[in-house]
Write a structure and sequence with these properties.
This protein has one domain: Carbamate kinase (3-Layer(aba) Sandwich), CATH 3.40.1160. The C terminus is likely disordered. It is of the alpha/beta class.
């Protein structure tokens, strides 16, 4: 089984991935997980709400979710999900749109605060509109794929107290891939993780050892830290492998499965691990 995460950045054109999934789904079960960062920011702009981004102590940047942002987030993700379902159906896939709330698909505790770094100092920001996925109803997903469907999954998730809250889409994809024992393909707007982001020749192609994974974590900067974190969480959760690859490549999913991008083997993880940064 394959879990394909389609990024929501403005530079990501999902058309190639949707066509690829439509073809792959004829021979292998596929689950799509999506983000929608640009759609959320665009809606916030139209609503006159300024998005706030914060940095965690682990160096991961994410959007801080307050009540107004949560409302926009839910609306924007619904639109992104519908658009992807339409695109997949046009590509021949029997796609079914879901969010993490549906059937309690993605559940876990709601946060009361997040740890952030402001002006070089660690602080606690109070806010209870985000959560951490601890459980995936893989039975629901397996039922759909066994029926020949392609589930299309996006945030929000369902908190343990029954409230819809924000969760990071990369980490949602990791949780789904781990629960299904699937191969995870994280499609984004670059072709992998680079030791030097300005030098394409420094892309890390294969990671097979704990030392290699430690070097990958050190190389990851900015938003790529979240991708590497998601890779680790997927593999620790039981995924069969993970790759970070270019969403805009020709046949991006198949290309990633054939060896393009930054590929990480399950054996690359040590017994421990960092895993200390929070999503926002």
């Amino acid at each position: 089984m394959i879990v394909v995460k389609i990024g929501g950045a403005a530079a990501v054109d999902p058309a190639g991935a949707l066509a690829d999934v439509g073809e792959l789904a004829t021979t292998e079960p596929v689950v799509v997980v999506h983000g929608g960062s640009t759609a959320v920011d665009d809606l916030l702009d139209r609503l006159g709400v300024e998005p706030e981004y914060v940095e965690t102590p682990g160096g991961v940047t994410g959007r801080f979710t307050d009540e107004a942002t949560m409302e926009a987030f839910t609306m924007a993700m619904s639109r992104v999900n519908a658009d992807l379902v339409v695109g997949l159906r046009e590509a021949g896939a029997d796609a079914v749109g879901l969010c993490g709330v549906d059937g309690g698909l993605l559940t876990g505790p709601r946060k009361s605060a997040v740890r952030v770094v402001e002006d070089g100092r660690r602080k606690i920001r109070r806010g209870d509109h985000s959560g951490r996925i601890e459980r995936v109803d893989d039975g629901l997903l397996r039922t759909l794929v066994d029926d020949g469907r392609v589930p299309v999954v996006g945030p929000p998730m369902l908190a343990d107290d029954g409230v819809a809250v924000n969760t990071d889409a990369d980490r949602a994809a990791a949780a789904v891939a781990g629960a299904l024992g699937a191969r995870l393909v994280l499609l984004t707007d670059v072709a992998g993780v680079y030791e030097d982001p300005d030098d394409p020749a420094t892309r890390v192609d294969v990671v097979e050892t704990p030392d290699g994974f430690a070097a990958l974590e050190d190389a990851a900067e900015g938003f790529m830290r979240r991708k590497v974190m998601a890779v680790e969480e997927a593999l620790r959760g039981g995924a069969a492998g993970a790759v970070v690859a270019d969403a805009n490549a020709d046949r991006p999913v198949q290309s990633a499965l054939d060896g393009d991008g930054t590929r990480v083997a399950p054996d690359a993880l040590s017994e421990g691990g960092k895993g200390e940064a929070d999503e926002n």
